[in-house]
Amino acid sequence: MRLRDTRIRVAVALAAAAAVVAQLGGCAQTPITGKARGVGDIDAGTAAGIPVDNNGPSGPKQGVPDADIPFEGGDGGEMDRLAINALDDIYAYWSEKMPADFDGQKFTPIERLVSYDSDGKAEKLCGQSTKNLVNAFYCSQDDSVAWDRGVLLPMLDKQFGPMSVVAVLAHEMGHAVQFRLGAKSNISQATPTIVKEQQGGFFRWVAEGKAKHFDINAGTGLNHVLATMFFIRDPAGLSASKQGAHGLAFDRVFAFQAGFSEGPTRCARMDTDEINGRIQEKERNDTEVEKSDEGNVDPTEDDVQELLKKSLDEAFGSAQDKPGITYDGADCPSGTATPPVSYCADTNTVTVDPEAVKKIATPPKRGQEPGVDGAGIGDFAAFAEIASRYTLSVQKSYGGELDGVKTGLRTACLTGAWARYTDTDTDNTRRLRLAVGDLDEAVAELLQDNSLIAADVQGKQIPSGFARVEAFRIGFFEGDKGCTEGFSG
């Protein structure tokens, strides 16, 4: 987040990890448009209707013969085997979906598949040298899909697992499908890059058990794919109107869920007007995007703590008996503690472990996965943890239960509503304000196994990470009115 006063001090959220990784991405999610929704419309135990099973398989299937698709290059290694098996499943998906969803049009395989090593001998592909080209891409000039088996694929596999490789190739194949569909995909030469990058769809088909070579469960498996959007987002502050812009994680997860929920025709309906209406990172001035010495705001500073309390009190002004917030540990004299932050209902107090939230607020280093092996996420992730426990007091004041799935959904939703409040700029008074990339940190924290943003007073998360993000998004776009359904239930 950033501090706003007459001097406009800035705390900028973390930029994307590697520039090349920001070039990649997945696609598939549902914009919240039309009639208002409430948390009662969300099934917390499913991902768009597919039951969550955290113990279900995710990754390459065992005992399945490898695909036999001709391709150029290659070293006979594991990365090429993974890529070709992924492409075989993606071919099967589009062979089924393209004629079914696009007026009988048949899918034709890619003319040229190429494996290369960006660390090896330079080749010419799509008019560019492969030397240091850590990437995967579709080239319409010769209808080719190429991937870097030497650096990119091993890096993705090591950091995020083999399904991240599948996601990248599914994304590039999505571009090939756009090229084949032409006007049916709402794409033309004049279409901005960001629209092209948010179309696609494939993972629901895998989650339904239809893929030959891969499985993914709708719980932790899908959560991990969604969480990788934090790393394949655009650098914070890159305008969505710029050529080459792909979108931030908040926007790309949005697109991912649309395709997962509704299929390729939903992706094809995405156009410039829709993207402009929902993309959260648009134009930012230089002051807002440059890094200051302050970096992320430190949630343990006294003045920041006061500003956070003021922000929450103002955002939920109609709630009675606003809670106190203390920073001397996350214990509760009675009731269940949920470190690093707890809500003690008996005393109407939010208790915070300052060192633990400061750790969350520390951005991960390049190449680190957020929240894994001691890595933090960013200041907004820490603030959202505290805000989530504050919203339990809000729910209590309206007669809401503090235990159970509905509570977890309302908590995520109300935290999103607070995030929207911090994005308003009504005056020049000193206050906390949403900074570039903060919503990406919210997505990353929501998908952590131990996050409180979508948890009840006992710290029990709602099962579906898919539903957690959806509830947060409802609050962000619709405010607390989108969260109030079922407050007394």
UniProtKB/TrEMBL annotation:
Database matches in Pfam families: Zn_peptidase (PF04228)
Signal peptide (from-to): 1-24
Keyword terms: Aminopeptidase, Hydrolase, Protease, Signal
Organism placement in taxonomy: Bacteria, Bacillati, Actinomycetota, Actinomycetes, Pseudonocardiales
Species: Actinokineospora bangkokensis
Region Disordered: start-end pairs: 281-301
InterPro entries: Uncharacterised_pept_Zn_put
Record protein name field: Aminopeptidase
Signal is among the record's keywords: yes
Gene Ontology molecular function: aminopeptidase activity
Biased composition (Basic and acidic residues): 281-294
SUPFAM superfamilies linked to this entry: Metalloproteases ('zincins'), catalytic domain
